[in-house]
């Protein structure tokens, strides 16, 4: 029935029948609709020129939200959102994207300049990390986790985290965690692992902040390197989940170090670090990636290229051509 038909039908009803109908309809309303109706019940309908304001949505207690997110992340890591189990229902397993979207909405509600804001950023890091894991290890029903959760791509979520570090005043524990999850080494098929180091370095506005971040990344790198070496010291064809993630984290954390070195103009450090850690095993491949992936100025490009030549590396043909073109351009 249309609303006018309803009005005509109940117009002559006894008052008590109207109240019974209203009560019946109210019980069937979803909670979000009840919140708005409650306001009108308590404050009246107002007049035609001034509609009562909707009640302000109350933010969920951050501790309660933290418990819910920790439980979600723990279940996801256990595979409970991928495999059939008694902990997570089939409906909830298929509904994981909406669960994540609801968490995101809640976490973005906390105001800048509050303790809850930085706490929310830490929890957003947990969500970023589990979505990242899902791109590499079976965690949800898709490996396109970031897009499924409502992001344009993985880079967009990480850029949001980096922006929140700045807005939150570069709080140490937040900065440390944003770096750590950015180095998790898990990326979707549309994303390059070079994007997160680029986004992070670009978010740091001063040399002082970049140097401080560099020290944090280098400190994180040492235990990551130790774990990686423990897995790969001996040749093995057995590829475990932990081994795969260790390799990705080792490479990505190394790229963060090199990116910060190059953004600070510390070219010798960038070159020596990349060559010593052997992310790509072959020196020629390492030189190629140093020159092609780090947004170098022409002069810095030439400097690293010539350092490679001095160390006996024979570059591929397109690098030789690029070097000749850059030298000619700078000579003019």
Brief digest:
The protein is mostly helical. It contains 17 helices and no strands.
What would your notes on this structure say?
With 332 residues, this protein is an all-alpha fold. Helix content is 68%, strand content 0%. The longest helix has 26 residues, at 207-232. The protein starts with a helix and ends with a helix. The mean pLDDT is 89.
Topology:
Blueprint: H1 3-10, H2 15-27, H3 31-43, H4 62-77, H5 90-94, H6 96-107, H7 115-136, H8 145-148, H9 154-167, H10 172-182, H11 195-203, H12 207-232, H13 241-263, H14 267-277, H15 283-293, H16 298-310, H17 317-331
Write a concise keyword list for the protein shown above:
single chain; 332 residues; mainly alpha; 17 helices; elongated
> How many strand units?
0
Using the alpha-carbon principal axes, give the shape. Answer: elongated
* Helical fraction: 55-70%
Strand content: under 5%
Amino- and carboxy-terminal Cα gap? 80 Å
């Amino acid at each position: 029935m249309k609303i006018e038909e309803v009005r005509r039908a109940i117009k002559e009803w006894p008052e008590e029948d109207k109240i019974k109908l209203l009560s019946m309809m109210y019980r069937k309303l979803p909670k979000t609709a009840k919140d708005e109706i409650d306001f009108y019940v308590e404050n009246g309908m107002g007049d035609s020129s001034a509609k009562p304001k909707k009640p302000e949505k109350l933010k969920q207690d951050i501790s309660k939200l933290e418990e819910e997110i920790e439980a979600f992340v723990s279940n996801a890591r256990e595979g409970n959102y991928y495999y059939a189990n008694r902990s997570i229902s089939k409906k909830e397993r298929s509904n994981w994207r909406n669960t994540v979207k609801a968490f995101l909405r809640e976490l973005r509600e906390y105001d800048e300049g509050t303790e809850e804001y930085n706490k929310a950023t830490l929890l957003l890091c947990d969500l970023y990390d589990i979505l990242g894991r899902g791109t590499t290890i079976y965690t949800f029903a898709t490996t396109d986790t970031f897009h499924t959760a409502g992001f344009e791509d993985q880079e967009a979520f990480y850029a949001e985290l980096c922006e929140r570090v700045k807005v939150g005043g570069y709080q140490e524990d937040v900065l440390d965690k944003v770096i750590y999850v950015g180095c998790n080494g898990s990326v979707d098929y549309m994303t390059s692992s070079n994007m997160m180091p680029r986004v992070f370095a670009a978010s740091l506005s001063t040399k002082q902040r970049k140097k401080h971040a560099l020290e944090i990344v280098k400190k994180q790198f040492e235990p990551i390197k130790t774990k990686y070496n423990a897995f790969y010291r001996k040749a093995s064809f057995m590829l475990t989940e932990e081994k795969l993630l260790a390799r990705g984290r080792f490479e990505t954390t190394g790229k963060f170090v090199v990116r910060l070195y190059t953004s600070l103009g510390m070219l010798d450090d960038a070159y020596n670090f990349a060559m010593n850690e052997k992310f790509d095993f072959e020196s020629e491949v390492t030189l190629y990636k140093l020159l092609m992936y780090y947004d170098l100025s022409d002069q810095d490009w030439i400097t690293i290229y010539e350092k490679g030549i001095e160390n006996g590396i024979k570059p591929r043909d397109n690098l030789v051509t690029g070097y000749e073109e850059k030298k000619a351009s700078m000579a003019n």
